[in-house]
Amino acid sequence: GAEVLFSVDCAKLEEYFLPGKRQFDCIYFNFPHCGRKAGVVKNRELLAGFFRSCAAVLAEEGEVHVALCNGQGGTPADRPRREWHNSWQIVALAAAAGFILSSVHPFKAETIPGYKCTGYRSQDKSFRVEGALNHVFTRSTPPLCFTPVSCQMQLGNQKVSFQVPQVLVDKINRGFLDPDSNHPVRTIREKLSAGLSQAFPLQNISSCLPLLHQGHPPGVGHSSVFWVTLSPEEAPGAEEASQGVADAVLFSRGGFWQHTDENVHKGCPIPEQFYLRPSLLPPALAIIHEGAFPPGTLHVLSGPVFRKCRITPRSIPVFHEMLLVLAVSRGTESSCIQVLVENIKTTVNSLHQAVSGIKPSMNLREAASLETELSDFAAFECQLGEIQHFLCLGTGTDPSGCCVGVIRTAPHGLDSTELVLVSASLNLDLLAMLLCGISDWRMLWTSDRRFLRQFPEGELRLFESFSLYPPSYVHDVSFWVPDGEEFDEVAFHTLAREVSGEMVVSIQLRDSFQQPGTGRRSLCYRVTFQSCDRALGCGEAAEMQLRLREEIRQHLGVTLR
């Protein structure tokens, strides 16, 4: 009952099948070869044409199976593994056609009835298939859309809009914490809340948190936050802003700016700049100053926060923060912290053991013990105010622990001298990565549906990547820094994020040179492009590098070399 076609050109599959018969669920190509003594270059060209052709005839969720002899593919699954330049580079060739490697397993000829390997050097001779591998490719999600996005919101009694920073376009309003979400960050938040409710009365106040803040965040560097500009025709003037800033948290350079009639009548200047919230702590302080904060109740705030940071596997420009705030009697703060931390540790340890079967180590470390090894998350938290303890979670692959939270006490945070404010800030994204074995934070924000399918109905599981051995492309960029200016590395990394759509996985300083006589300084950086969830071809990475060079020339004032 099968239809058999002969003499089919593997690089022109669409020419042999009518449009109605092109949606194949599986396409198999066992041991492709140009014939005779063709070298790796010719066989790469054959594979490249084959993958381009498959894109036209494969069903949306179909698979392409390619069997190669041991060592030909060039992936870490090969034993032994060939040098990259001497392999067929199958993953990179597939990526150029929009495919990702989703599985690789041994090719077992004996399991295929009637199969016989033949064709050695175009002859009726068999060839060795010991150690051969079957590579299974699937379609990647399409490239990200870089269309500018505007966000509208209510600021007091007025509607305003602003353009979302390019690097956050695919991350704004994703709804990971919504009631109908089964994203791991929501599951972890719900589990933590359930555990904490056993020890404290809980009140959730996340629904009234402002997205925009106004002025300048105290203690935080200007280059560490995402600044936005309201649309000119809708930007409130000083008088309008003073009448309707209920949904904005106001700051002056000296600290918290309280919007009161007294301040307005005194002529206190109202800040004009707006930025996306980098923390939930300032909104919590605002609620406290409004008096809506009864003692003895653990108040829970959660939502996304936005911070500019360098590119590393665990440096996240937007993540979900869970802030726990509790007012306690003076002198009891230490015991309250102990109860709070023990409750968090019990819940996290239980989740980790249920997911991986291994008991993790969650420990409380004094602030002084981490001064020389602060992560970007911990370093930013230090800018927001003094920290008493760091919460660190250790796993099998990282027993020393990664900082996932901080504990603070604020003796002057309340009007009452009899009360002390205790707060705990938790990074839900880092917790999800460590608990579910996710090595790259970008996977939490993927639009590929295969990610959330692994967490049905909010169940936490060990994550299995659907994109194996993604190809990486290394480019160097060298430039002269403007005289007398300090080079802003965070701005450089942020531009790389924007240009590549988070396809840059590493930026390393390779060389710093000062020209004798003139004193001009030159920097050379190595930029590595690699995606964790979708296809990235060599040509696409090269185009990103060219755009990055132009962007840093325009925005950072450097002179390219």
UniProtKB/TrEMBL annotation:
One of its GO terms (molecular function) is ATP binding. One of its GO terms (biological process) is rRNA base methylation. This is phenylalanine--tRNA ligase. It catalyses: tRNA(Phe) + L-phenylalanine + ATP = L-phenylalanyl-tRNA(Phe) + AMP + diphosphate + H(+). SMART domains: FDX-ACB. It comes from the Eukaryota. Pfam families: BMT5-like, FDX-ACB. Keywords: Aminoacyl-tRNA synthetase, ATP-binding, Ligase, Mitochondrion, Nucleotide-binding, Protein biosynthesis, Transit peptide. InterPro entries: aa-tRNA-synth_II/BPL/LPL, BMT5-like, Fdx_antiC-bd, Fdx_antiC-bd_sf, SAM-dependent_MTases_sf. The keyword Transferase does not apply. It is found in: Mitochondrion matrix. Residues 468-561 form the FDX-ACB domain. Its EC number is 6.1.1.20. Belongs to the class-II aminoacyl-tRNA synthetase family. GO terms for cellular component: mitochondrial matrix.
